[in-house]
Amino acid sequence: MIPAIETATASEIKIFQEQKLQELLVYLSQNSPYYKRLFVKENIDIKSIITLEDLQKIPTTSKNHLQENNDDFFCVPINKIIDYATTSGTLGDPVTFGLTDKDLDRLAYNESISFACAGIKEGDIVQLMTTLDRRFMAGLAYFLGLRKLGAGVIRVGAGIPELQWDSILKYKPKYLITVPSFLLKLIEYAENNGIDYNASSVEGVVCIGESLRNQDFSPSLLAKKITEKWKVNLFSTYASTEMSTAFTECEFFQGGHQHPELIITEVLDENNQPVKEGESGELTITTLGVEAMSLLRFKTGDIVKLHTEACQCGRNTTRVGPVIGRKQHMIKYKGTTLYPPAMHDLLTYFEGVQNHVIEISTNDLGTDEILIKIATKNNPEVLLEQIKDHFRAKLRVTPKVELVPLDELNKIIFTPLSRKPINFIDKRN
């Protein structure tokens, strides 16, 4: 199930996207209060935006713009909104997104071709281990995509290893959709309860929210830790509420494939200029085919690299590499630039770490300070030294590490108001 445009040549894909871009600009100029004002204020003639390169004539849209002008991004009247979703609020106040009936169809199409990219087929059974409630777009998108694909869905929701294993053993799903670190908890539960996880029906896992790959696409420490025990294929998928589009790996694990019929991608530097090929920068997207809240040159906050070389799967689409980190989460520590994902991955290396939180603050000198809070059931003094040595070897710096009781740490990580575990806290102004 590969859409024809995704196997077209690079030049054919570019021409196709330029046509879709011109249609989008007309739509926004007629229906979006925010972009109408922007075009007038910046004296932008949309007829002059012909090529993808011409996008640089248009200012970027940031999360702040969405937060300050939320209602003005709606392109349809309220009575056309079928579903309401909100962003997770990772970088500030959550933003409300509305989806029309057409947008829900687009969302289902996006996820169906994304899951097909990971090898899921009609008739496969998939266990959905994410929430569908609390205005969470992703859980709904997964369900709609699997339904459109013709796969069976077991809606278990997040957490509770005992319930997950009960469903796996009873319904025999071929694929799981979950946060990868939770697989370690499934393995631990199985080992403690005599379950042979390698004899289960599970062959693959579509993983969300945490990185599975290094920048050269080799497995991360987290991925290695999982697959050294459980012989399953791990597929990375990357998306956000604002994009309404997913980038999912194929069987060759060389980055998430872009769907050119749904989204235009740019990677920009600090001055909002395109980076050179192969360099990293902030992923900036333009959504195609979204009816309620189309976005033009929206800066996602994620630092990535794009890959354009041909993929063995037959798709000729651009691929998004592993997220290096969030732009606003960049840390300058003792002359070294760090991002939280690298630190999270290093901490998964240690069996004795039951859970952790990374806190970033500003010290008396006005520079970044790192404090890692961990809970452990092993010899704490030995573990602390091992963690510091590992950080020094891998990242060239040694952060402060503090022991915290597990129940106290879990109160920070699992809060009622958050849909996701909180393992990173930024206390900088």
Write the topology of this structure.
Elements: H1 10-31, H2 33-41, H3 63-68, E1 83-86, E2 96-99, H4 101-117, E3 125-128, H5 137-149, E4 152-155, H6 161-171, E5 175-178, H7 180-192, E6 204-207, H8 221-227, E7 233-240, E8 245-248, E9 256-257, E10 263-268, E11 281-287, E12 298-304, E13 306-307, E14 319-320, E15 325-326, E16 331-333, E17 336-338, H9 340-347, E18 353-362, E19 368-376, H10 380-395, E20 400-403, H11 406-413, E21 424-426
Parallel strand pairs: 3-4, 3-5, 5-6, 6-7, 18-21, 19-20
Antiparallel strand pairs: 1-2, 7-8, 9-14, 10-11, 11-12, 12-15, 13-14, 16-17, 18-19
Describe this structure in words.
The structure is a single chain. By secondary structure, the protein is an alpha/beta fold. Helix content is 30%, strand content 22%. It is built from 11 helices and 21 strands. A 6-stranded mixed sheet has the order 4-3-5-6-7-8, sandwiched between helices. A hairpin with a 5-residue loop joins strand 18 and strand 19. Helix 1 packs across helix 2. The longest helix has 22 residues. It starts with 9 loop residues before the first helix and ends with a strand. The model has no long low-confidence stretch (mean pLDDT 92).
Quick one: overall form? globular
Q: Helix content range of the residues, please?
A: 25-40%
Strand content: 15-25%
What does the radius of gyration come to?
22 Å
Q: Give the strand line-up of the largest sheet.
A: 4-3-5-6-7-8
Euclidean distance between termini CA atoms: 47 Å
Mean pLDDT: 92
Largest sheet: 6 strands, mixed
Counting DSSP E segments of at least 2 residues, the number of strands comes to 21
Structural class: alpha/beta
| Uncertain spans | none
Number of helices: 11
Determine the oligomeric state from the structure.
Answer: single chain
